[in-house]
Amino acid sequence: MKQFFTLLLVLAVFSLPLSAQSITLKTDSTVTTKHQVTVKGKRISYTATAGTQPVWDEDGKPIAGLFYTYYERTDVKDKANRPLIISFNGGPGSASVWMHIAYTGPRLLNIDDEGYPLQPYGIKENPHSILDVADIVYINPVNTGLSRAVSTLSKEDTQKKFFGINADIKYLAGWINTFVSRKNRWASPKYLIGESYGTTRVSGLALELQNSHWMYLNGVILVSPTDLGIKREGPVEMANMLPYYAATAWHHKALSPDLQQKDLTDMLPEVEEFTLNELLPAIARGWNLGDQKKKEIAAKMARFSGLSEDIILQQNLNVPPAFYWKELLRKEGYTIGRLDSRYLGIDKQEVGLRPDYSPELTSWLHSFTPAINMYIKEHLKYKTDIKYNMFGPVRPWDNSDDNTGENLRQAMAQNPNLHLMVQAGYYDGACDYFNAKYNMWQMDPGGKLKDRMSFRAYRSGHMMYLRSEDLATSNEDIRVFIQKSLPKPGQPAQYIRGRAGDRSTTTSQLTK
User: Fold this and answer.
1) Which of 48, 110, 185, 187 is found 20 to 30 A from 347 (Cα to Cα)?
2) Which residue has the higher pLDDT, 497 or 63?
3) How far is CA 275 from its chain centroid?
């Protein structure tokens, strides 16, 4: 009888829904598999290590396990000269999936040449991966991907230790220190790459790693950067969106024929100059601008944005981005995407001040979610019942004391070897390309570091690499950035009097 009841209990447990069962987080685990990929016509062998590594508290107890995937080329024995790329996505709360299986990694998800979903879902080789020149680790912060805090940690402690700008930077720097030590990569040139909120993260990490872990970097790559704590309030915030509006209108053929017949990159400098020299001071004057001058400015804004002069006057020269996404194609019955304005959406009603949803984001989740779940389990052989969080619960997020732009400037000033590259998409309305430039201007207003800063823009949106043409170009830009930011053998990290900028690389070499 006792055996009978024991059997019933076992059957009952296994018949419970997954949410009612205990899913144990392994804070320290690895699975390594061997693979090959052809990059730039050359066959490369590599290992992929998928696993978790602990985050420890002050007493050395594991308080979280961060899921990561580490790609290491196997035919390179000299790790001292082999760069290591440490990759983060953003959110906050977003997994590292985006750049992992769509940008720099050795495998790509199945999408068309413009980035739209295709079925059947799947994974293929990435012929543009930067694995030929660098090893790469993709890291998922707590509650993103398969990363989790331990169950014994209280909600309050989890919030305090993980979910805020500076808490995030602090614990991730410690995690990176452990990873670099475990993988014997202290001698390697190191680079951070972050996308969206990941740019806030890696900008802060550059200084935290340097000051608290004495780990010095060769480069930081910001993909679709946030404001990095650099204020854009008032007239600056209002004016700086116009170049993005112009790029979007050009893409949708909503400009006048004389502008439309120009190439995008030939048209935008005129808009940028108008923004800085006329629009910004005009908005700053408010009603003191006068009706006639206000009408003149509105007419020029209409010419560059694809909106009507009346609409712009009704907005007092301040066109909010959400309104623009709703208004530009309103008469055609479409909205445009926030993160990539090439994408179209359909709202329930044509009236309104903002779109009902983000068409680009739902399109991306459509293709990325099946692909990453299949890839981890079927290709990387990492088995778990933990849900892969494309976007995880990390809010409320503590945004106070965001000094990450200044942190990055300090790190560059203190380390003559540290270079910066910014990548942005012309059609990104969340982290727009012109404000990405503005960040660089304001981060180093004296211009002493500008020779170690470079900027690249692409004809797509927030995730510019989803467009096949830009996937090739943007990866090649990273490849060139790495190669040019490596010091020559025997060259010391030092400043030379009379040359305030980079010790060996000129602006013309790094900036197009």
Assistant:
1) 110
2) 63
3) 26
Q: Count CB atoms within 10 A of the CB of residue 307.
A: 22
Question: What's the whole-number mean pLDDT along residues 16-40?
Answer: 77
43: its two tokens: 């066959």
Looking at the structure, do residues 352 and 475 belong to the same domain, yes or no?
Answer: no
Q: Which long-range contacts does 374-380 make (Cβ < 8 Å, 24+ apart)?
A: 374/121, 374/122, 374/123, 375/101, 375/107, 375/109, 375/123, 376/50, 376/146, 379/33, 379/35, 379/48, 379/107, 379/123, 380/31, 380/33, 380/48, 380/50, 380/69
- In this structure, the answer to whether residues 253 and 213 fall within a common structural domain is no
User: Per the domain annotation, does 274 fall within a domain?
Assistant: yes
Mean pLDDT, residues 455-480: 98
pLDDT confidence of residue 383: 95
Answer yes or no: do 215 and 244 share one domain: no
| Angle subtended at Cα 43 by Cα 41 and Cα 46, rounded to the nearest 5 degrees | 135
Pinpoint the alpha helices (H) of 415-504: 433-443, 468-485
Task: Report which of 285, 290, 308 is spatially closest to residue 298, judged by C-alpha positions.
Answer: 308
Distance CA 417, CA 421 (A): 13
Task: Determine the length of the chain.
Answer: 512
Structural domain containing residue 306:
235-357
Task: Indicate whether this model's pTM tops 0.85.
Answer: yes
For 371-381, the pLDDT digits (tens) are 999 999 999 99
Between CA 402 and CA 169 the distance in angstroms is 11
Domain end among 357, 385, 417 = 357
Q: Total structural domains in the chain?
A: 2
Residue with tokens 């690389």: 505
Residues 410, 274 within the same domain: no
Residue 317 counted as domain residue: yes
Question: Where a domain ends, among 305, 322, 357?
Answer: 357
State the Cα–Cα distance between residues 280 and 32, nearest whole angstrom.
54
Tell me the pLDDT of the chain averaged across its residues. 93
Q: Are 46 and 167 in a shared domain?
A: yes
Regarding whether 193 and 105 lie in a shared domain, the answer is yes
Domain membership of residue 54 (yes or no) is yes
> Using CB atoms within 10 A of its CB, is residue 448 exposed (0-12), middle (13-18) or buried (19+)?
middle
pLDDT at 498: 76
